[in-house]
Amino acid sequence: MAMESGSWKESYKGMSADNIKGLVLALSSSVFIGASFIVKKKGLKKAGASGIRAGSGGYTYLYEPLWWVGMITMIVGEIANFAAYAFAPAILVTPLGALSIIISAALAHIILREKLHIFGILGCVLCVVGSTTIVLHAPQEREIESVKEVWDLATEPAFLFYAALVIAAVFILIFHFIPDYGQTHIMVYIGVCSLVGSLSVMSVKALGIALKLTLSGTNQLIYPQTWVFAFVVITCVLTQMNYLNKALDTFNTAVVSPIYYVMFTSLTILASVIMFKDWDRQSPTQIVTEMCGFMTILSGTFLLHKTKDMADGSPSLPVRLSKHTEEDGFGTEGIPLRRQDSSRAP
């Protein structure tokens, strides 16, 4: 019995202290962000009851304390997510973002009385199973002692080639495809967000490592590389926000969210594998297991979004606006949706 206990401990010995810190921060981020959607939604509904709804162009929600509580909660979640990248590899942190969807769906079911279909519950379970699989088989975080080491990784030929492809694809999408297809093809806006997002996460991770080392006593702010990464973060995040808002304003949130999650997470993992060589420190079995966990999360995410507007026994199209959306003009994330009927009127 003692030997069995010893072998069990050995099998889980690999999870480093930094990975555990990153895991806790990523989970905290999902809790805060998932809860913020619900708090903002309640604030929006409360503000809409006494003034012009945001979906109709009103801004009364800016005077609603509950909405600001939701915004502050989301900011705290994003800060925790930023910090998580400083401790754990992107292949561990990024997929855990799906947990915020579960928390949001569960709280919407409890607090907002929005029906969660049985298949939605199954989707939540799949996300949890997939996340657990990735957590148990995540690679060790790379030991980095200076932001210059991150710069060396970012300037290796393989990652420079990836970054060049991403930038070229983004410019082609923005200047060639968006003018003609942006309003009709959902993949155009989401493509820009996801491609730029993969670079922003790598820069966020580099900046997070620089700040972590600085706070631990090794000042990294004296190196120009730190400020270059900061500039890239600001540029990429602003670009992401711009085109994600365009996607959300043009298409139903229920369609945008899962597609964006899949593309963004997939490209981020690819970028991390190229830049930080996460898989070089893992066996083929661990890599395949992680990919199975990721596919399980994707399945759960799609199932949850596919059935979010279904009542028991009465399926509906996934792009149809839910009852709550039709009433107040907002999706579960509290983001105004485009009125498709009025936009297509002659």
Automatic annotation (TrEMBL):
Subunit structure: Homodimer.
PANTHER family membership: MAGNESIUM TRANSPORTER NIPA3-RELATED, PTHR12570
Summary of the function given for this chain in its UniProt record: Acts as a Mg(2+) transporter. Can also transport other divalent cations such as Fe(2+), Sr(2+), Ba(2+), Mn(2+) and Co(2+) but to a much less extent than Mg(2+).
Subcellular location: Cell membrane; Early endosome
Keyword annotations of the record: Cell membrane, Endosome, Ion transport, Magnesium, Membrane, Transmembrane, Transmembrane helix, Transport
The family this protein is said to belong to: Belongs to the NIPA (TC 2.A.7) family.
Region: Disordered, residue numbers: 316-346
GO annotation terms (biological process): magnesium ion transport
Annotated Pfam families: Mg_trans_NIPA
InterPro entries: EmrE-like, Mg_trans_NIPA
GO molecular function: magnesium ion transmembrane transporter activity
Protein name as annotated: Probable magnesium transporter
Organism of derivation: Populus trichocarpa
